[in-house]
Amino acid sequence: MSPGPEPATVVGRGSEMELLRSTLTGVASGRGGVVLVEGEPGIGKSALLYHGLVEAAGMGCEIGWSVADELSPRFPLRLLLDCLEIESRSADPHRLDVTAILRHHLSGTVASGGDPMAALVDEALTFVEKLCADGPLVLVADDLQWADETSLLAWQRLTRTVEHLPLLLVGAYRPVPHRAELDRLRAEAVSRGTLIRLGPLPEPMVAELVAGLAGAPAGPRLRSLSAHAGGNPLYLRELVDALVREAAIAADAAGRAELVGGSTRRAPATLAAAIAGRLGFLSPGATTALRVATLLGPEFSLDDVAAVLQQPPRDLDGVFAEATAAGVITPGIRLSFRHPLIRQALYEEMPGVVRSALHRHAAEALAATGAGAERVAAQLLPAGPAVDGWATGWLARTAPQLIDRAPTVAAELLDRAVGQLLPGAPHWEVLAGALVRVLFRLGRDAEARARQVLAHTGDPALAAEMRWILGERLLRAGGYGDARRVVEHGLRQPHVPAVWRARLEAMSARIHSTSVDDLDEAEAIAAASLASATASGDRLAIGYCLLSLSTIALMRRDQETRLGHLDRALELLADDMEHLELRLLLLGNRALALSILDRLAESERSLADARDLAERRAGYAGLARFHAPASVVHFWTGRWDDALSELETAGDLPESPRLAPIAVGVRALIACHRDDRATASARVEAYPDQHTSTAFDVANRGFLIAARAMLAERDGRPEDAVLQWRELLEPRYARMERHTPLPDVVRAAMAIGDLDTARQATELCERDPGPAIPGRVAAVERCLGLLTGDPDLLTRAGRYLHAAGRTVEYARTCEDLALVLARRGERQAAKCALAPAMEVYAGLGAQWDLRRAAASVRPYGIRWGARGPRRRPTYGWAALSPTEVTIAGLVAQGLSNPDIAAELLLSPRTVQSHVSNILVKFKARSRVDIAREVLRHG
């Protein structure tokens, strides 16, 4: 949307205008920024934005402009998409490409589990970043108080990127109505930019404005009347304009503009009265057409008004020419009201019953012209709660399209319709089924509605789908037993279509693979389900069956078999965009399997493939499941800053209960290693100590247990540390891949002379029921080496860990070897063994490990002291981590964040986090400053 016609001249806002122009100059030179303008209606916000930013295009900036209205909150992402001019009518081929991608997002099914709105947000933000790679970008959003929640959240996320993108975000809003989402955006924006509060014009500025409007300086009576405007520029203009039209102003003997007829004239009681005076000059035909136009939003087309009025468009040319001449309408490709309050005055003049009826009529008229589902729904929403036969028929036909594009609107309209129909009535079954689908997609409680449909439908396919949705919801909530009963009941029904029977059987396999102790039984169920799914040819059912088989292999600690099932499923779904959720789930599991097999490079490649699919091809928002596994891989390979960046970028995504222990544990462990006890303790204490019910659910608790044990050890409570570690020895952890932490259990137990615990942990590691993969063999050698003091075992294990790339475990094994050698009196060999550990700890910034390792060998006459590295500085080139040095160099080469992400196998948002850290460490304002620092340091 363009900024529209030029508004009135700005008076008395010199400093605010200078600030806007300064930020515009900054973004033109590559320095982003955020500006918010707050003020009451008519105070001059829109005029300030227009005149402050009018030179943007001339300075080489691309500019996008949008204005929200009262209906905007009902339609997700409308404001941002309007601002970016992403629509099918765009003449820009790049925007048409994005439009096609967005349309493709909306073709998913309930079974895919994807959230189209989340996908749209990420796709739109990626498009913003691509625009910024081409040149400076200015995005302007007016009337943010009406913006939809999704656009506000997206705008808030964009504010976090301005420090390293040539992006200027400018928004204007009224302080009322108050909205929590807008408060959060304001807090984020103020912390990174500027808030301009526009108050009433001071008296000298009021006098200047009135003089310009009246054609001469105001006389005493006119100045007194003007004071009633309260310094509001719009009110002043409407007031003086009304007086001029009424010939109530004339020049006095001194040449001043003065009121005619003494001092008896009074100002209109409200601004609406001043607007009504302007509208009173219009003909009845123009007034009628304008009232219809108010129904259609702040912008409208003549054709739409003609459709509602059931008149030929040419018959309206004259009335809109009249409204334009009167200053009520501004011309353009699409017409608009000169000010929102003019539209509001016209709209509110109509009685509520009349408005509702006109909205209902407008919905049917627009639908007859082939208008999109959103535009028709925008008329049905304010048409009132009553739903008639035409509306229910239209909803039944267009529900899938409306659910994809505006799910919250669809949910409201469908709920109205279903609530007014009795089961068995025409369209009830279609509408009730659609309501369950949209509630499920929105994450709302669809159980009652699904059960209602099940109680009344005679359609086997619909009944099976309702049971699938009901079972999926129960399964996600951990209600394994309830989900199993729903699915088994569905499978006993006659005439279930083959596809839905296969999907229900696949769900049964998923339930058994994650909740039963008898893995043979679970495997038999999964294999039978796979045979049925294969016979049906349904790729979703086949994929979920293979996922279940991979989970059973995980519980058996057979990672190679697990990997085989995952690879087979991914090969099957290689070109399937409909079932995106399943593909991403498979890729995440594949990355974890590869990391356990110590194929870390392949694991990172699998994660990169998932990110590429999610962020570049599909814009999928639910990346927490990939940031968490990525953080695990980065932790073990010693890329701790990358691990933290992964978890930081997942911070604004919905948390998964199964992934939360990983995120808490990794963050706390790194903080403890780096001697930041306050952060480590806060992370651990904030996480509730939940004891999960299934072996599958306990698998992610290892990092959390390790963090608690390390905190106890750091605080000088070694007995408590062993007590924490002993949890891993419980039978419920038998199916967890615990060979990695068991050497830590042995080490902690040996430190306090608890040989029973040390032996138990070693025996558990030796009796590992899974295949003897090299990582488990090395873990056994470490446990035995610690228990027996055998340096050869520790040396052999250390060589393997170094070759595998498990940097953290390698360093700790070197430290253990050094201590064993020191106890044997081999001081020089101990020093040599300790050196690699100290080098790794220094590179990681692991200050507590440095102190602990130095202290452990000191009783044996080994002094490390000054040879230990110092802390990394806070600012400057030396403050950069190795990854940040690499990214800074790529920024200096002119690569965009997506290009850097592809180069380094990171997500764009992780790169964004690194770039932000680099800017802080350089005390820089833009990517240009980063490039200068890179060049300065060669």
Protein architecture, described:
By secondary structure, the protein is mainly alpha-helical. It has six domains: about 15-195, 3-Layer(aba) Sandwich (Rossmann fold); about 205-265; about 275-385, Orthogonal Bundle (Arc Repressor Mutant, subunit A), CATH 1.10.10; about 405-630, Serine Threonine Protein Phosphatase 5, Tetratricopeptide repeat; about 640-865, Serine Threonine Protein Phosphatase 5, Tetratricopeptide repeat; about 875-935, Arc Repressor Mutant, subunit A (Orthogonal Bundle). The protein has a five-stranded parallel β-sheet, with helices on both faces. Helix 25 runs antiparallel to helix 26 (about 540-555), helix 30 (about 625-635) runs parallel beside helix 32 and helix 45 (about 895-905) packs across helix 46 (about 910-920). The protein is flat, with a radius of gyration of 34 Å. Keywords: ATP-binding, Nucleotide-binding.
Task: Summarize this entry quickly.
This protein has 938 residues and is mainly alpha-helical. It has 47 helices and ten strands. Strands 2-3-4-1-5 form a five-stranded parallel beta sheet, with helices on both faces. A three-stranded antiparallel beta sheet has the order 8-10-9.
**Could you tell me the strand content as a percent range?**
under 5%
Total domain units: 6
Radius of gyration: 34 Å
Q: Which segments are poorly predicted (pLDDT under 50) over 5 or more consecutive residues?
A: 106-114, 616-622
**Helix content range of the residues, please?**
55-70%
Question: What is the correct CATH architecture of the largest domain?
Answer: Alpha Horseshoe
Note the total helix count. 47
In the CATH hierarchy, the third-tier topology of the largest domain is known as Serine Threonine Protein Phosphatase 5, Tetratricopeptide repeat
Describe the sheet with the most strands: 5 strands, parallel
How confident overall, as mean pLDDT?
Answer: 84
Instruction: Determine and state the CATH class of the largest domain.
Output: Mainly Alpha
